[in-house]
Amino acid sequence: MRNPPNDTLELSDGVSAAAETENNKHVPERTCILSRRTASREELIRLALGPDNIVAPDVRARAPGRGAWIGVDRPTLDAAQAKGKLKAALARAFKTGDANAPDDLGKRIEAALRQAVIDRLGLEARAGNLVIGGEKIETALRRGEVRLLLHADDAGADGNAKLDQALRVGSEGQMRHGLVFPAGRAILSLALGRQNVVHVAIVDRAAAARVQGLIARWAAFIGRDAALGAASADSGASA
Predict the structure, then answer these.
(1) Distance (Å, rounded) from C-alpha 209 to C-alpha 29?
(2) In angstroms, rounded to a whole number, what is the distance separating the alpha carbons of residues 107 and 185?
(3) 46 burial class (0-12, 13-18, 19+ CB within 10 angstroms)?
C-alpha cells in the first residue's frame, strides 16, 4: 500500500499490464478500485461478489467470478464507504449497480487477514518450520538458523531485547531485531494451539517469506506500517 498510481492498461478483474521483475518474468498486477494505484496481488485485497450481490473479502483470491481489488487501509476504506465512494467503485468494478457492501466490511476484511496469518502459522508449525519457547529460540538464533523472529506486541521489552541480541549475533548483524506481530500473545497462542506464545522463530526461508508477506498485508490494512517497517527491512537482509 505504498506504490504511487500509474496509468497502466487495466484488464478484466482489475488486472493491469504485467510488471517486469529482475528475472524478466511478468508478474500480473491489480488496480485498487479506490486509489487507482497498481500493485501485485499479494499486496492488495480481493473482494468477491456473491450470488446475493453482497460483497465479501476474498483474501486468498480463490472465489470464482470477477473480483475487485483494494489497496487502502481500513480508515480510508471506511471513509470511502461512508461517503458512497466505495459503492460507486464497486459498481464500476463489478459492472452492476446491485453490488452491496455490508456496513462492517472493514471489520470483516481485518478479521479475514488476521485469520489468514493464523492459518499460515499453523501450517508452518505442522511443517516443522517454527521454533517456540524462549531457550529454544535463543539457541536457534545464536546458531544463525532463524530467518524471521516474531515478537507479540504485548511482549516485554527485556525479553525482546534478549532475543534481538541473539538474532544480531547469529545473523552477524544482518538482522537487528525481530518483527513486531500486529497482535498480542493471545493470537499467537491461538495460531499455534499453545498457551502463552510470546515469541516465534521461523527457520525456513520460504516459510519466513510467506508469513512476513501475510503479516505485512494485515498490518498495512490496520495501519501498522510504521511499527513493522524497520524490522521488516532487517529481516529481509539475510534473504
Answers:
(1) 19
(2) 21
(3) buried
Domains annotated on the chain, with CATH: 12-103 (3.30.1230), 109-236 (3.30.1330.30)
How many C-beta atoms lie closer than 10 Å to residue 60's C-beta? 11
Place of cell 490494512: 221
What's the pTM?
A: 0.83
Query: Angle at CA 182, nearest 5°, toward 184 and 193?
Result: 50
Locate 97 and state its grid cell.
Answer: 449497480
How far, CA to CA in Å, does 199 sit from each of 17, 29, 214? Answer: 40, 34, 17
Residue 198 near residue 152 (C-beta atoms within 8 A): yes
Give the end-to-end CA distance of the chain in Å, rounded to a whole number.
22
CA distances from 169 to 61, 103, 123 (A): 39, 49, 28
The mean pLDDT value for 215-233 works out to: 70
